[in-house]
Design goal:
Order of helices and strands: HH
Number of domains: 1
Number of strands: 0
Number of helices: 2
Strand content: under 5%
Distance between the termini: 55 Å
Largest sheet: none
Helix content: over 70%
Shape: flat
Radius of gyration: 19 Å
């Protein structure tokens, strides 16, 4: 019974997160787009750093 409760809580939290994201996109689309761009830039910079690290390791 404990496992079923955990799964339901995870599902509820996931649905709430999606609902909050959609609310944010519908009410403040420019801010949401800026936030997504910022996250994308951070991920790209992190990936480039990892690539640079492994390239330096091989050379």
């Amino acid at each position: 019974m404990q496992i079923g409760v955990v799964v339901n809580v995870k599902k509820i939290v996931g649905l709430l997160a999606i609902a909050l994201l959609l609310f944010f996109v519908f009410t403040q689309p420019d801010t949401a787009a800026g936030s997504l761009q910022s996250i994308g830039t951070t991920l790209r910079n992190g990936a480039e750093s990892v690539i640079q690290f492994f390239t330096a390791l091989v050379v």
